[in-house]
Structures are given as C-alpha cells and as structure tokens.
Amino acid sequence: xxxxxxxxxxxxxxxxxxxxxxxxxxxxxxxxxxxxxxxxxxxxxxxxxxxxxxxxxxxxxxxxxxxxxxxxxxxxxxxxxxxxxxxxxxxxxxxxxxxxxxxxxxxxxxxxxxxxxxxxxxxxxxxxxxxxxxxxxxxxxxxxxxxxxxxxxxxxxxxxxxxxxxxxxxx
Length: 171
Description:
By secondary structure, the protein is of the alpha+beta class. It has helices spanning 2-24, 37-48, 60-63, 74-80, 99-111, 121-154, 160-166; strands at 26-33, 53-58, 81-82, 85-92, 117-120.
C-alpha cells in the first residue's frame, strides 16, 4: 500500500515537472496561406534549422505529402487548417524575451511568405520592442519639453531649467 502511494506521488511529481517544462517553453504560431503539404514540410525544415527553435509541428506532419488533409476527421482539421490557411506550431528552447528567441522570431518572419502571420508572446514582445525603439526619440523630446515647461514655471530663472536639463546625462 505504501509503495503504491510512493509510486503515485512520484508519478504526480513527474507530471508536474513535465507541465513546468512545457510552460517554460515558448510557443509561436504561424498561419501559412496558399502552400501545399510539400511546401509546408520544406518550410518546417528551414524553421527547424534556426538555433533557438526546439520543435516545429503542423498537420502535414501527420499526413505527409501523399495523404490529403481532407481524409482526417473534420474536428481535427478545423483546429489546424481553415480554407487555404494552415497552422504551424513552433516551440523555442529559451524564454519569451530571450535574445535568441526574439532573433529566431525575426528569422522566421524573414523565411515565411508575406501572406503568413506570425503570432505568440515572443512575436508580440518583438513587435512592442520595435515599436518602442522606433518612437523612443519622440517620447524623449516630449518629456524634455514638459520638464522645461514645469521647471520654467516653478523656478524664478529662465536659464536654470536649461542648465538642469543639460546636466541630466552628465556623470
């Protein structure tokens, strides 16, 4: 009886470890349009060669190039294919915001066609990072203008706000 409980406990610990491992893996979905099974499998191979990519999976892994997807049950096909679009699931070795993962997402975007959509947390982090970097200068200029206005209103001198702003970056 005790051994069965120990084995049961060990089994649940192993399941917890697998769940923890899978939640640490980052997932990106690619919605690929207008490609046949052979092209999808070739694309999977290219994506799988990227350094930080762990696994690449699509419905075409089940069927290959010789079996049509329409043979599969409709409830399975609905989850992985809709019309001309097919989903490709990509998992990464590193975390969402890791530089290797973000570089892998950039490389995936360069590999896939223009009709493709790359989504997931890593793709959103990359988009947010690119957006912030492109607009950072504007935010800094607006912040400096507001600081000068506030300092000019609150100080007696008109020169002191500019001296304070000029000294912000100095060591």
